[in-house]
Write a structure and sequence with these properties.
The structure is a single chain. By secondary structure, this protein is mainly alpha-helical. The chain contains 15 helices and six strands. The chain folds into three domains: 12-101, Fumarase C, Chain B, domain 1 (Orthogonal Bundle); 108-147 and 162-356 and 414-442, Fumarase/aspartase (Central domain) (Fumarase C, Chain A, domain 2, Up-down Bundle); 358-412, no CATH class. It has a two-stranded antiparallel ribbon. A two-stranded parallel sheet has the order 3-4. A two-stranded antiparallel ribbon has the order 5-6. Helix 6 (108-144) runs antiparallel to helix 14, helix 7 (164-189) packs antiparallel against helix 9 and helix 12 crosses helix 13 (380-393). It is elongated and about 95 Å long. The chain starts with 11 loop residues before the first helix and ends with a helix. Bound molecules: arginine. Arginine is lined by residues 22, 82, 108-109, 112, 317, 319, 321-322.
Length: 445
C-alpha cells in the first residue's frame, strides 16, 4: 500500500508503469534520504513537532538504518513505492506512531529534491577525485617526456614540431577548465531545497536555516517554487559539466587510437591492454580507447536528453522528473569508469623516441628555418618566400633543433603553473563543509 493510499486498492499495471525502475534508482538515494531525515527531524524537535524522547527514538533508528545502507544490506520492498516510503515504513515498524510524525512539513517532492542534491554533490566529489587522479598522471607523463618530440598536425597534415610533454600537458590543463564547469554544477547543486515541501512551503514555522546548516549546504534555495524548479536544472547543469569532462576524454581516446595505428606508431601499450582479432593473429587493437570514445559520446548526448525530458514543463512538480534518475545515475557511473580506465591505460603508455628523425617529417621544421632567417635580419615575409622556394625546388634542408622557450611551448611547459591552477580549482569547491556536516549527522550519541 502506498503512502498516499487511503484504502487498499491498487492497480498492478499502473504501479509497474509509474514506478518502473525507480526502486532500483532510489537505492542510490538511500544514504541521502536518511541524512535528510536526520536533519529534518532535529529541526522538527526545535519547533515542537517532535518531543525530545521521540527525537531520540527517531535518530537512533534512522542511524541504524543508515548503517544497513553502508553495509549494503538495505532493500526497498516489492510493494513499497520508493526510498522515502521505505524509510518511513521501517521507522514505523520499529518505533510505532512516532515514525509517522517525521513527514510533518515535508513532501516527497522536497524529499527527493534534497536527496538528489545530497547524492549528487557526493558524486561530484567522487568525479572531481577521478579528474584529479587523471590530471596528476598526465602531468607526470608531461614532465617525464618533455624532451621527446612528436609531429604536430593541423588538418591532420604535418605542421610543426610538438612534444609528448605538450600532448599530455594539454589534456591535464583541459581538465582544469572542465573543473570550472564542475564547480558551477556543484554550486548550483549544493543549495538546500528542503522545506519547499510539495513546492509551496508549509504553514509550520520550519527552520530552514537550521537544516541548511545541518546538511552542510552552501545556502538554501530560498524561493520554494524555485527550489522545485531546481529539479531538472541541477541534473542538466551537472550533465553539461560531465559532458565537458567526457569531451576531453573523447579527444584523448581518439588521439590514442590514431597514434597507436601503425601508420603513426607513436605510442604502444603492453599486449594485455589491447585486444586481439578472431581471424588476424597479429592484431593488437585499441578497444579500450574505442569503447571509451563511444561511452564519452553517449555522455555528451546526456545534456540534450535531459533538456528534452524537461522542456515545456510548467513550474511545479511533475512525475516526468522521476525518469531523470534513470538517465543520470548510470551516466555518472559511466564517467567514473572512463576516468579510472583512462588513468589506468596512461600509467602503462610507452612513447616512441626519435620519431622526427624520419625524413617524412622534414617539413615540420620549415618554420624553424624561416625563423632562423628572420633572426639573421631577413623580414619574415621574405624569409617565408625564400624557404617556400627552397621547398619547391628541392633545396630545403631541415634544421632539426627546436628552440621554443616562451611560456606554454615545448621548452617551457609551465607545469608548475598548471599545477597551481588545479590546486586553486580544487580548493574552490570546499567539499569539507558537507563532508563534516554528514559525519556529524550520523555520529553516534
Ligand atoms: N519517485 C518520485 C520522484 O522521483 C518521488 C516523488 C513523488 N511525488 C509525487 N508527487 N508523486 O519524483
Amino acid at each position: 500500500m502506498k503512502l498516499w493510499q487511503k484504502n487498499g486498492t491498487d492497480t498492478a499495471e499502473v504501479d509497474r508503469f509509474t514506478v518502473g525502475l525507480d526502486r532500483e534508482m532510489d537505492l542510490s538515494l538511500a544514504r541521502a534520504d536518511l541524512l535528510g531525515s536526520l536533519a529534518h527531524t532535529r529541526m522538527l524537535a526545535t519547533i515542537g513537532l517532535l518531543a525530545q524522547d521521540e527525537l531520540a527514538d527517531v535518530q537512533r533508528e534512522l542511524k541504524a538504518i543508515y548503517r544497513t545502507v553502508e553495509q549494503g544490506d538495505f532493500r526497498i520492498e516489492e510493494d513499497v513505492e520508493d526510498i522515502h516510503s521505505q524509510v518511513e515504513l521501517l521507522l514505523t515498524r520499529r518505533i510505532g506512531e512516532t515514525g509517522k510524525k517525521i513527514h510533518s512539513g515535508r513532501s516527497r517532492n522536497d524529499q527527493v529534491l534534497v536527496d538528489l542534491r545530497i547524492y549528487l554533490r557526493r558524486e561530484i566529489y567522487e568525479i572531481v577525485g577521478g579528474v584529479e587522479r587523471l590530471f596528476r598522471t598526465l602531468q607526470r607523463l608531461a614532465d617525464r617526456h618533455k624532451e621527446v618530440l612528436m609531429p604536430g598536425y593541423t588538418h591532420l597534415q604535418i605542421a610543426m614540431p610538438s612534444s609528448f610533454g605538450l600532448w599530455f600537458g594539454a589534456f591535464a590543463e583541459a581538465l582544469v577548465d572542465d573543473l570550472a564547469m564542475m564547480e558551477a554544477a556543484y554550486r548550483i547543486c549544493n543549495r538546500n531545497p528542503l522545506g519547499s515541501a510539495a513546492g509551496y512551503g508549509s504553514s509550520f514555522p520550519l527552520d530552514r536555516e537550521m537544516t541548511t546548516e545541518l546538511l552542510g549546504f552552501d545556502s538554501m534555495a530560498y524561493n520554494v517554487v524555485y527550489a522545485q524548479m531546481g529539479r531538472g536544472k541541477t541534473e542538466r547543469v551537472l550533465a553539461q559539466a560531465m559532458s565537458a569532462v567526457a569531451a576531453t576524454l573523447n579527444k584523448l581516446a581518439t588521439d590514442n587510437c590514431l597514434f597507436l595505428c601503425q601508420n603513426f606508431g607513436f605510442i604502444a601499450y603492453p599486449p594485455e591492454l589491447t585486444t586481439g582479432s578472431s581471424i588476424m593473429p597479429h592484431k593488437k587493437n585499441p578497444d579500450v580507447w574505442e569503447v571509451m570514445r563511444s561511452k564519452c559520446n553517449r555522455l555528451m548526448a546526456l545534456p540534450n536528453e535531459i533538456a528534452l525530458m524537461t522542456t515545456n514543463l510548467p513550474t511545479g512538480y511533475f512525475r516526468d522528473l522521476q525518469l531523470l534518475k534513470e538517465v543520470l545515475f548510470p551516466a555518472i557511473r559511466l564517467l567514473g569508469e572512463c576516468l579510472g580506465m583512462a588513468d589506468y591505460m596512461l600509467q602503462h603508455i610507452e612513447v616512441k623516441h626519435d620519431i622526427l628523425n624520419d625524413p617524412k617529417y622534414d617539413y615540420l621544421f620549415s618554420v624553424e628555418v624561416v625563423n632562423r632567417l628572420v633572426l639573421s635580419g631577413v623580414p619574415f615575409r621574405e624569409a617565408y618566400r625564400q624557404v617556400g622556394l627552397e621547398i619547391e625546388n628541392g633545396t630545403y634542408r631541415p634544421l632539426r633543433e627546436v628552440h621554443h622557450t616562451h611560456a606554454g611551448s615545448i621548452g617551457n611547459l609551465c607545469l608548475d603553473r598548471v599545477d597551481a591552477l588545479m590546486a586553486e580549482a580544487l580548493g574552490r569547491f570546499g567539499f569539507d563543509r558537507f563532508l563534516r556536516a554528514e559525519e556529524e549527522l550520523v555520529a553516534e550519541g
